[in-house]
Model the fold of this input.
Amino acid sequence: MLGIMLQKMWHKRWMNLSLLLGCILLVATVVSFPLYQNAAYDRMLQDEFRNFISTEGKFPTAICMKTVCMKSNAGSDKSAKTMEKIEKKMKSIPKELGVPSVLQNDFIYLQRAKADSDMNREDGTDIDLCIGGMRDMLSHVNIISGEPFSESGITEDGRIEVILSQECMTGKGLLVGEELTFSSLKLPDGSPVRIVIKGVFKADGDSEYWQMPPSEYREVCFTSMDTFRELFTGENAGRYTLYCNYYQLLDYKSITADQAHEMFTKGTYLQEKGKFRSVLEHMDFLDILEKYEAKIKRISATLTILQIPVLIMLAAFLFMISGQMYEMEKNEISVIKSRGSSRGQIFRLYFYQGIVLTLIGGAFGIPLGTLFSKVLGSVRNFLDFDSNRVLNVSFTGESAYYALGAMLITLLSITIPAIGHSKVSIVKLKQSRNVKKKSWWKKLYLDILLLGISLYGYYSFHKNMGVVSGTVMEGQTLDPLLYISSSLFIIGMGLLFLRVQPYLIKLIYLMGQKLWKPASYISFMESMKQSSKQQLIILFLIMTVSLGMYHSTVARTILDNAINNTTYADATDMILAERWEQMKDENGAYTGKYIEPDYKRFATMDFAKKYTRVYYDEDGYVTEGKTNRQSSDIMGIHTKEFGEMTFVDGNLNDKHYYEYLNELAEVSDGVLVSSNYRDKLGYDIGDTLYLYNGKQVGTACKIVDFFDYFPGYAPTKTTLSPDGTSKTEERFLAVTHYDLTRREYGVYPYQIWIQLKDNVDTEQIYQWIQEHDIRVMKYVNRNDDLEMTMTDPLLQGTNGILTLGFVVTIVLCAVGYLIYWIMSIKERELIFGVLRAGGFHKSEILQMLLVEQLFAGVLAVVAGIGIGWLSSVMFVPIIQLSYASATQILPLTLTMNTTDLIRLFGVIALVMVTCVAVLVSLLFHMNVTKALKLGEE
Amino acid sequence: MEKKMIEGRGIVRAFPVPGGEFTALKGIDVDIPEGCFAILRGRSGSGKTTLMNILCTLDDPTKGQVFVDGEDIHQLKAMERENLRRTKMGFVFQSVSLIPSLNAFQNVEFALRMSGAKINKETNARVEECLKMVGLGARMTHMPSEMSGGEQQRVAIARAFVHRPKIIFADEPTAELDSAMAAKVTETFRMMSKKEGITVLMTTHDVGLMGAADMIIELENGERIG
Done:
């Protein structure tokens, strides 16, 4: 049996290689999804940690317990036990949370006490100091003067040896070698505590060890931890107040996405319900993990759903090829069957073949899948690879299940049809050829059904759009139907096209019935009769094109909208607001009047191309009738300068943005207001509006026009209330002249809006701010914000998955298309032989193939473009919503990236050209007499 | 004197094989007059098909000359040979060689299309005539998969005749048929050949069919023995 099988496989090596390739690709792709997704989640988590470090400057997974122990009397008291318990707990935390520790540190010190210098000090001022100890301190300091404390820590005459920070030394005016006595602190034997300053230290740069910056220890003199514990915490120690700080730094780099949830749950328990909650400081990693989990929750459904069509395509690919195999071997099977082979034998033959192919497929597919996910790990944006980004991919149990699943599907796709085919003897086979079968999906009207469901999803999205965006904000998962609609739509439309395609070909045929030369004639006939065989490859092409377009549009739209919104919301390159001093009256009380800092300083900003003053009051309001107040932001601008450094896209308002500014410029008491003044408050152009600032000073202005969008203005603002529900409120804005606000409202802190020169370094700006001692109230830097937007881990993770889907689809399409056509030619070798023998020219054969490609390929690509475009327009807003519902200000614009499309169509064109080239070379090298002989076997 | 439709002189065909050369035809002379129904017989491996392939321009002789209708066919370019095949020759093969996506009528009509004929009422009538001659007037719209082997072979004969070629080459057209059907097919050939005045060269190893032939060419080990 094995021999027969191997012989059969060798004989049909073309087919088996195709099946093997399909199997390898399926396993590789299926494995790469979970591998990549897990690794990408891991990296997202690490990115969150790193972002925290760079914005907060703190260690993200530091755990700190602080307690104050009052030692009542010498002997066995509670405080020693408490400390022991905390220390024990601290030690066990890494194990409890499942994360190894990188560093554990304790810092314990006594209450501050007055010390008397043994030297004759002239100033006679008090010296207040704490005595303390920190674990393993000497390996984290450099002694810059004097020497470290000795191992015993105590001099021969019983003085405690201490070292001090430079800040403490200079702050307290102490000297190395100075001896001090704390008369209020007693040693166990009743004598006062005496210390000697042995040296001055400077902390090393280890920020993990120095959880508090070294400058914080201005009043602490450190002795060795062992000495400290022996003297002040032991059983015999006297009455002290001990300030204990315990640190445990967990290795955040080792935390994987799988661990995140458990760590969050356990950490939250420790923080809120644990026995030590009262001494446990707030753990920052809980916030990080919470944020991370919310993000994952938001995208995991989306990511999974974006993968579904790709997986469907993969399965279709295998069934297509195995279908081709059975099509070719149908005769042989029925002959074997008629010669007396049992059904079991035939089934086993294919089963063994399946096992061999599946095992080889798995062996090559799994490493290939790992490679896939590594390559995709370097994705920055859609189809944009950055070789510096490395993704640590490790093979997990989950991906092993995926691999097994993929292998099982391969095995099934190869063996299941054998059950049916093994029933058929040659007689039945010949009879069955006479019966035309309609595809099962046509009978079931699957295409109509899928379209119906997807259109319902589309309809319900549009009906409930407002609710949906709230749901997303609140972190709830959306109805899966919303997401899956796009996939159903693409498949449904693809099937619908398959239903229509034969009629389309027939129509073309009939239109030029008299014109067709023999070659075109035969390809028409072949295409019309073979349409059921070509169904899968056509569906494949349609899905490749439409999914490629859809995925590209999703990725580009998400990114572009994020960029556009940031660009718009930030309004200009940079905004700087300074904290102003208020004037005091003779009693020293604040008058509410401000002192304007020197405006000329801004002229020294050599990074600025232009800058202007903008009055901005978020607490303004207008009155409606006598009682109703409508809060409204008030802006005061210099129209010319303002217009030079801001921009609003022309399509957003009825008029060009500059026209609004010109209108305002012409009326000295004019005001531009948001369109809700007209729609909600009923104002009209020319009406007088009383604008009150936050200090309730009012002024009358004349409305010159209404705008929908103005730099930085968001018509609505959605906020999340503490109870988790979201609220959307309308926002009003009134824009008038800066001079008018200055005249009417007085001197009031203004913002400086700045247009930057090209290639300005953020450091340069910080430096200027520091040099001019600007006390920053508000700082907006558009370049920084854009950088943040583009490197958002959520976005990058999504782009990776989308790129993977895109690449896999294209590879499958290329391989699938080629395999289909090669097999289709091999299958028809005899016919080509007959045609060539009958005098068909090579050019006619070529023409015939081209026409067939046109019907199966080009027509499908055109249909794919249509479907891809339609599905993008209809369904991308749904996907986009789960990424940006809170920050979305501008109306959503779809971005179809031409480069992506060119790449997509380039690859498809290349595939088709390669396909034709391979087929032509196959055909031209075909020996006519041999081909004819083939038919005799 | 009768006009010679096929004239072969000293045809030698050698194939390279590992360690030397195998000579399949060893200097064959052959003359077939116009309108003759000739049978080329011989055992398997005697060189029948090789000779036929050379006579119908699908293969070239290593040595020797072949004239078809007075023309030295091996001097022709590939394109000219193909045109010769589609206008002056018809073919019937051993295995079923109909185009599966075309029905009986369309299969026969396709040979007309290939010969360059414009499809019109006359050509339709001609297709019908040929199908009726082979006894399939009632099955014109049937697909190849709906017909028996003998019926398919008769459609192939109609296809070979329909464009009125000068010669029809038939390579073992009866090999896959039972003897009754083989006799019927052979008779069809003979009848069409006589009726249309077309030269037919048919290979077979079936001795029972020899009686129908005007002329028998017998090969053995690449040499003509009769």
Observations:
- The beta strands of chain B are 4-17, 20-33, 37-41, 63-68, 71-72, 89-92, 167-171, 199-204, 215-220, 223-224.
- Residues 97 and 123 of chain B are 22 Å apart (CA to CA).
